[in-house]
């Protein structure tokens, strides 16, 4: 078991037993005395756990003693979980309803007595076992009841960007680029290898080369794949095709894969990077090369590897041996990681210790980053002195000793972070870890603790993640266009470290593995599961305390087409899982062809996370609401799901209802608005027949109370008819954590006879919070948009589609953050922008100084058949009280880089000032005959205005 894990579990048990809910249930069930005994016993154990966990590596007696504690503590946690479920059911009892009679019957004195007796025996048995274990405590353990690192740690400020810090590799980069460009072989395809010990930064250097502009221009095709220890032709072929966004490669047989791969590379000068190669079998290499030889002259394969044998096996023409950083480069990297703003410390003792660390780590940049990140939170001389005296001697740059060096940074983590990092041993090398899912998994396992009841556990978990990231336990962090973290990876050495510290508690299973340790607590499967061909190994069934059952290999299945639907093999699998793994907190059943959720799953009392994504389920059974501990229910791509459980409001712990991809829901169950703790609800579908929420369906008003929602929200089947009849309020205005909103009215809804103000009101009530980043509107039938558009000061992407009655766009031109604007199928739109202000013909000086659409980078205008121009301003002159001036020359689109116009036959000109657009790189015009004629190369009237644009496509 990983160090700190038992301490963390014990801390959770003590916290539970001290809560008011457990005091109440203890009194009701007559087990309060046993609860008190258990708490006292666990407190005594916790006092020595930190010392025992540190000593178990070199002390077999302590190790065996801890194993006995582990079994008892995990069982205690399960029993308390059952009590917790009953306490929650008590909270659900309503005041005076018919339902409450049945619920109260359960809590009658007789049922309380039965439950209390049953659970009392379990608690007594655990107390007895723990007492026996305590009597056998090894004598040399020290009492230390406080996780000092947890108490003393300072909050990390994250003031620097936690990405690969590539220092001192400029010469290496240029040398390898030269090798890739030089004609080093008579063959079309030749191989270059980067050889070096683990942690030197081979992959980081290869990424730097891969993304270099010279390389980008030289090679017609670039492909990057991580190989690791699996060098099988079909797997490599799939990875190469997937890297080029080839669809559905998992359904291809070997002949099809080979044909597709040859077509991909034949005749093209390509660069293929094979990262982290371990293959020493020349026959496997030759089979791969048979598929790759057809590349154009000058094609290169760049390999990163730890051994020269791999380079020789790969017929490397020019090997490049990567060396460690010199002392100056190492000190520069260490300063960047260990000190604020990378500045050299003034304290001479701290500097001296730092220099000594550098001298010991200079062969391995990963060790420098890791140790530097560990020391970043230590600001006092005594802390650095203690590190020098106790830890420095353990640092070694030799390859065989890298893991012990990296483990130093693990050893000083507080117990809660140790637990979270060890869990990541479930992810194989180079796996793209979804950060939001990782956070949900940590929460589901009970790793996340907060002493502030108003602090959300997911927010605490995200802080844990950032601390581990800043200490280089994670790397290659990816963010979306809004700067929100989406995924990360672990260096292969960090993956090895996670496996080392998790011990026998975790395993990533491969298809042929048969033997498993009975102490196993967490298991993941990194291959496609087909239940007609695979059975749970017998030895795995003996590990009946498993808490995580995670399928990773299913995630690449993008379509259910062709997958086997539920059969007898499925039913046997479910029965096996439920009967053997009763302590599961997380269960993956994704992409298994499930049509009906089996009844046996209702027994999974401890389940927090259930992944049913990618299945054929049409309806979820009503009993699923009885899984009272469930926090995450993932229904992504359940392409036949039409209905959610009608009593979903009973799932009081549900925080993440994940509805991503195509899911044909017909409505939302009434009462969903009572789940005020829900943070993820990607979709809210209004019933076709009942948008007001009468009967069994939820209406818009129920959204009003779900103010913890974050991420994205899609609202479907909005109606132009119903808002004036209902007390909807403004259900979205207080949702400050949403960054993306999709508003979708009923397609083709007849609005004849509907008052225009009521139509507009159907949008007005949907005003979002001003924090919103992305807004998409579909099938809205008003002639104008809601007034709140001008308040979207943080909007980045705006999309308006199929709004066929729209005559006026909202005032978008001054939105400071708008970067992307997409307009399509706006059948009555005549002008992009209309000024409501009267002015002189020459425009006012103030308006001329304004930069319209100041941040817009991408503008797409498609299928707007009556669009005439870009700008119309009302003017006042002697001939008429009101007239218009079109296409005035205005300081507009200063940041625009891409302009696409398609099927706008009445548009006659580009925006005035196009010649002055310094950033415009791409112009696309199609289906616009008058505009196309004006922009024709050389002869068109507007050609001089656009000739400077690098990429022009007009047809």
TrEMBL record:
Family annotation (InterPro entries): Apaf_helical, Leu-rich_rpt, LRR_dom_sf, LRR_R13L1-DRL21, NB-ARC, P-loop_NTPase, RX-like_CC, Rx_N
Q: Where is the R13L1/DRL21-like LRR repeat region domain?
A: 700-825
Q: Its GO biological process terms?
A: defense response; response to other organism
Q: What is this protein called?
A: Putative CC-NBS-LRR resistance protein
Tell me the Gene3D superfamilies matching this sequence. Answer: 1.20.5.4130, Helical domain of apoptotic protease-activating factors, P-loop containing nucleotide triphosphate hydrolases, Ribonuclease Inhibitor, Winged helix-like DNA-binding domain superfamily/Winged helix DNA-binding domain
Ranges for domain Disease resistance N-terminal: 13-98
Name a GO molecular-function annotation: ATP binding
At the top level, the lineage of the source is Eukaryota
Keywords recorded for this protein, A-Z? ATP-binding, Leucine-rich repeat, Nucleotide-binding, Plant defense, Repeat
Residue intervals of the Disease resistance protein winged helix domain: 426-498
| SUPFAM superfamilies, alphabetized | L domain-like, P-loop containing nucleoside triphosphate hydrolases
The UniProt entry, under PROSITE patterns, shows:
LRR
NB-ARC domain: residues covered = 175-341
Q: Which residues form a coiled coil?
A: none
Q: Which organism is it from?
A: Malus domestica
């Amino acid at each position: 078991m990983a160090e700190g894990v038992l301490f963390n579990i014990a801390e959770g048990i003590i916290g539970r037993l001290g809560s008011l809910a457990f005091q109440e249930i203890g009194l009701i069930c007559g087990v309060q005395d046993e609860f008190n005994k258990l708490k006292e016993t666990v407190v005594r154990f916790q006092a020595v756990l930190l010392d025992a966990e540190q000593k178990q590596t070199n002390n077999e007696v302590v190790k065996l003693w801890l194993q006995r504690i582990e079994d008892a503590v995990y069982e205690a946690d399960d029993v308390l979980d059952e009590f917790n479920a009953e306490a929650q059911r008590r909270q659900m009892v309503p005041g005076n309803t018919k339902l409450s009679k049945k619920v109260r019957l359960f809590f009658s004195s007789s049922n309380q007595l039965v439950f209390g007796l049953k659970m009392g025996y379990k608690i007594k048995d655990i107390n007895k076992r723990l007492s026996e274990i305590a009597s056998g405590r090894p004598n040399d353990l020290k009492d230390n009841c406080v996780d000092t690192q947890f108490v003393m740690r300072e909050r990390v400020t994250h003031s620097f960007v936690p990405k690969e810090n590539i220092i001192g590799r400029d010469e290496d980069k240029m040398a390898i680029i030269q090798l890739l460009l030089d004609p080093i072989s008579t063959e079309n395809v030749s191989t270059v290898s980067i050889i070096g010990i683990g942690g030197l930064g081979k992959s980081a250097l290869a990424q730097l080369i891969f993304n270099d502009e010279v390389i980008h221009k030289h090679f017609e095709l670039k492909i990057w794949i991580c190989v690791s220890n699996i060098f099988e032709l079909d797997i490599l072929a799939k990875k190469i095709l997937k890297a080029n966004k080839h669809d559905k490669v998992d359904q291809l047989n070997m002949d099809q894969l080979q044909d597709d791969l040859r077509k991909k590379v034949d005749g093209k000068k390509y660069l293929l990077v094979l990262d982290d190669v371990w293959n020493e079998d020349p026959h496997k290499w030759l089979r791969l090369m048979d598929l790759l030889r057809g590349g154009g002259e000058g094609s290169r394969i760049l390999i990163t590897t730890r051994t020269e044998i791999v380079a020789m096996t790969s017929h490397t023409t020019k090997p490049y041996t990567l060396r460690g950083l010199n002392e100056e480069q190492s000190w520069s990297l260490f300063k960047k990681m260990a000190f604020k703003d990378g500045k050299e410390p003034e304290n001479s003792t701290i500097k001296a210790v730092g220099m000594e660390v550098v001298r010991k780590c200079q062969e391995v940049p990963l060790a420098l980053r890791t140790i530097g990140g560990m020391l970043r939170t230590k600001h006092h001389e005594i802390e650095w002195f203690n590190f020098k005296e106790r830890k420095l001697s353990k640092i070694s740059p030799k390859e065989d000793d890298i893991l012990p060096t990296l483990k130093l940074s693990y050893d000083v983590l507080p117990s809660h972070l140790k637990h979270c990092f060890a869990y990541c041993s479930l992810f194989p090398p180079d796996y793209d870890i979804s950060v939001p899912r990782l956070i949900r998994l940590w929460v589901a396992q009970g790793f996340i603790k907060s002493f502030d009841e108003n602090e959300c556990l997911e927010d605490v978990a995200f802080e844990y993640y950032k601390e581990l990231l800043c200490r280089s336990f994670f790397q290659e962090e990816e963010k979306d266009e809004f700067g929100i973290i989406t995924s990360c990876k672990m260096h292969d050495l960090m993956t090895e470290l996670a496996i080392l510290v998790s011990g026998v508690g975790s395993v990533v299973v491969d298809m042929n593995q048969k033997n498993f340790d009975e102490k196993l607590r967490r298991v993941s499967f990194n291959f496609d599961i087909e239940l007609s061909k695979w059975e749970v190994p017998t030895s795995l069934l003996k590990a009946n305390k498993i808490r995580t059952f995670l399928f990773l290999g299913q995630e690449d299945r993008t379509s259910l087409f062709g997958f086997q639907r539920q059969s007898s093999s499925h039913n046997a699998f479910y029965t096996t899982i439920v009967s053997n793994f009763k302590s599961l907190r997380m269960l993956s059943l994704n992409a298994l062809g499930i049509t009906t959720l089996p009844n046996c799953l209702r027994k999974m009392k401890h389940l927090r996370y259930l992944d049913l994504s990618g299945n054929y389920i049409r309806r979820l059974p009503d009993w699923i609401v009885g899984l009272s501990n469930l926090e995450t229910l993932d229904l992504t791509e359940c392409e036949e799901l039409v209905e959610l459980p009608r009593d979903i409001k009973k799932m009081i712990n549900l925080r993440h209802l994940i509805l991503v991809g195509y899911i044909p829901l017909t409505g939302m169950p009434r009462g969903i608005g009572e789940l005020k703790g829900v943070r993820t609800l990607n979709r809210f579908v209004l019933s076709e027949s009942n948008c007001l929420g009468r009967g069994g369906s939820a209406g818009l008003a129920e959204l009003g109370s779900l103010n913890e929602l974050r991420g994205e929200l899609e609202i479907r089947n909005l109606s132009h008819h119903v808002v004036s009849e209902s007390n909807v309020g403004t259900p979205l205005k207080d949702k400050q954590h949403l960054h993306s909103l999709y508003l979708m009215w009923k397609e083709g809804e007849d609005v004849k006879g509907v008052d225009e103000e009521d139509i507009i009101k159907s949008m007005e009530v949907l005003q979002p919070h001003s924090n919103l980043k992305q807004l998409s509107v579909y099938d809205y039938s008003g002639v104008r948009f809601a007034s709140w558009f001008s308040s979207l000061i943080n909007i980045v992407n705006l999309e308006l589609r199929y709004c066929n009655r729209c005559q006026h766009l909202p005032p978008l031109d001054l939105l400071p953050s708008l970067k992307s604007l997409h307009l399509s199928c706006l059948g009555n739109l005549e002008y992009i922008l209309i000024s409501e202000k009267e002015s002189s013909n020459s425009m006012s000086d103030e308006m001329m100084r304004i930069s319209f659409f100041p941040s817009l980078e991408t503008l797409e205008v498609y299928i707007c058949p009556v669009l005439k121009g870009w700008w119309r301003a009302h003017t006042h002159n002697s001939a008429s009280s009101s007239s218009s001036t079109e296409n005035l020359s205005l300081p507009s689109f200063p940041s625009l880089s891409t302009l696409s116009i398609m099927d706008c036959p009445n548009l006659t000109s580009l925006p005035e000032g196009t010649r002055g657009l310094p950033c415009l790189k791409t112009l696309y015009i199609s289906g616009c005959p008058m505009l196309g004629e004006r922009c024709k190369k050389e002869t068109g009237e507007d050609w001089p205005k656009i000739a400077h644009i690098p990429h022009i496509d007009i047809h």
